[in-house]
Amino acid sequence: MEAIQHKDEDIFDELTLVQAAKKGDLEAFSQLVKRYDRNIFRIAQHITHNEEDAQDVVQEAFLKAYRNLQQFQGNSKFYTWLVRIAVNEALMKLRRRRADKTVSIDEDVETEDGSMPREVADWSPNPEQLYGQSELGDILKKTIQGLPPGFRTVFVLRDVEGMSTEETAEMLGLSVPAVKSRLLRARLQLRERLSKYFKSKRGGDKQP
Fold this sequence. Notes:
Layout: H1 2-22, H2 26-48, H3 51-67, H4 78-97, H5 127-131, H6 134-145, H7 149-160, H8 165-172, H9 176-206
């Protein structure tokens, strides 16, 4: 009960800061930046896999949020709105980097969900457990980098950042079924790639 109350207080405090920032209080907006800049940077770095690009994304996201603050109606959490801006900025970075290939949040999503076994949705090893181990964390980061941007973004928000399916859908402007479909496909691809890595590593260890 206390945790719920604390969460409600956080949301109320966020709204107070947003309302003050709308009235021109720069310090209030600065507090929002301090509260979320690390999270936004982490998400941006997962998507772009480039520290400089991620830093640019953070700056552009907060700048756009400030410029368009009056358009924020409060129908969702400010953080949800901010993440959506940041994700779009990060994907734009990828588009510029791959001028010969269109990158979209809707890329590579044609699938029949029924053709995939549902029991593999909760796969092992667990991403959070992998991140707790430096070597395996590096392996997972490189594996995530190989995912299509649309899958990568959903996976980062759901399995790395711990967002709910509903929050992820709202942040990306997707339906809940679309998020579930992409998350399942991302987990399948990651599991397959990690399995290949560990098999090759075991094979290498056996060699004299």
